[in-house]
Amino acid sequence: MAGVASPLQYGDPPHLGPFVLRARLRVGPAGLVYLGQGPDGRQVSVAVLTKGAAHDPAARDRFVTGIREAAASRSGMRGWMVRATRGRTAVADTMPQVLAMDGGGAPWVAAPYEPGRAGAERFLEPVLVRGTLIGERHGPDFAPHWVSDRSPALPAPPVGAPPPVETRRSVIFAAVALGVLLVLLAVMLLVLLRRQEEGAPPPRPRPQTTFVPTPPPVPATTEPGQPTPSPSPSESGSGRPGPGEGDEDDGSPI
After folding, report:
1. What do you get for the CA distance between the two ends of the chain, in Å?
2. Could you read off the pLDDT of 183-214 as tens digits, one per residue?
3. How many of the other CB atoms lie within 10 Å of CB of 17?
4. I need a surface site. Which of 46, 149, 203, 241 has the fewest CB within 10 A?
């Protein structure tokens, strides 16, 4: 496991129980360890199983059993169950103090955080143990199918929690607020238009138009059926009378 704290990543829970998670402390095949803060401001280390380990009943049982035995040994509750597992009690005595835990579908445990000392990550050690926790390990060496999983097991949402959608009251409130804004906008536009009409100068009256009838045109040609007037003597070209119609040739020489 890495011992350097790193920022939270996408998929990490923001809080577990009453503890707010601040950073990652360790990431391993069995689970993840976070640096958290309690309601009183105390720093804690929180260990949570991976999704694969949480879905494995045997791994989940080893994790929860180790937490409960450590809590029972420190509280002095050594009943017949603790006496029946004397070796496990010795192992539980070396575990850190259990501040809080959850043994549900996504189990986790919180322990005091002290730099340089083991914290909640100690409870992840029995999860990958094959065989027994007493004496030497025996049995076939194998790796669980979930050993490559590095995503934390997240607790299920509380039963009856409303879906993350807008409620009817908030929708009605938003619609009323929008209607009020539209009405105010319409009133402001009306006031602006009225002020523009009041401030505009009155239109000038147009001059009165006088209608003068146009006389009908005089035709240049004479009307049919009337004699054409003969030209006057002054209008002739020479001014000398030509041979008249009544002049008789008296036979005198010219």
Report:
1. 162
2. 999 999 998 888 877 776 767 777 777 777 88
3. 17
4. 203
Measured from the Cβ of residue 150, the count of other Cβ atoms closer than 10 Å reads 15
Strand partners for 50: 152
| Residue reference for tokens 């138009």 | 209
Identity at 88, one-letter amino acid code: R
Q: Where is mean pLDDT largest: 50-64, 115-129, 141-155, 163-177? A: 50-64
pTM of the model: 0.54
Q: Report in angstroms the alpha-carbon separations of 73 from 77, 98, 126, 215.
A: 6, 11, 17, 132
Give the range among 22-26, 61-65, 74-78, 116-120 with minimum mean pLDDT: 74-78
